[in-house]
Here is the input.
Amino acid sequence: MASLGNVALIAGRELKSYRRSPLGAIVVSGMLLMSGILFYIFGLSADRLLSAEVLRQFFYNASGPLMIACPLLSMRLVAEERQTGTLTLLNTSPVTDGQIVLGKFLSALCVISLATVLTAYMPALIFVNGKVSVGHILVGYLGLLLLGSAAMSIGLFASTLARSQVVAVVITALILGPMVTLWLLAKVTEPPLNSFLGALSLHHDNFKPFMDGVLKLDAVAYYLAVTTFFLLAATKVLEARRWR
Here is the structure.
């Protein structure tokens, strides 16, 4: 119970930091603006698209701004503590590195989840002139949240490695970029390597079922595995730095 209390305490502290800083509002606003513009251009303005195809386009276009927002929201999580010297104080408090990582991750996930939910008016617009399945919408949003969770865990891991927030963003991009574009390598390689690379891709092969409204458990397991791996890696980095 005490461990959960520590996680909640750190998460609450981080949420207050997001509220005090203009960064969170700027990133969320930018994400919503980009999603809205892309939805209008490729969804509402496109000719002869069925409602389900418009919805599919929405989830595809929303995933891009989401993956850009995650590194920007996560860059400060640990790197800023190191820059300001408060990480030392946090390390001397009665909390474990795992609790620090989990608390910070949950706070950032809360912000990105809120931003994702705020895009719900776009699928709702489809109901005005068309008909889509509620299940398709729910599965698509689950995919966006899982993708955001995985991208945020990578950003948090990068933040534990970096001494500045700018470096954290660069490290995140260096990890995220290849993981997103693995599907391109899969297209130019032979079996079974192409299937292996496609299965590891952060976006294309694993996100496509969610765009189509299909819930595939192996895709859910993939995103949860990526998230867990990078959260554990972030914890190990903090542990290693604590004993230097």
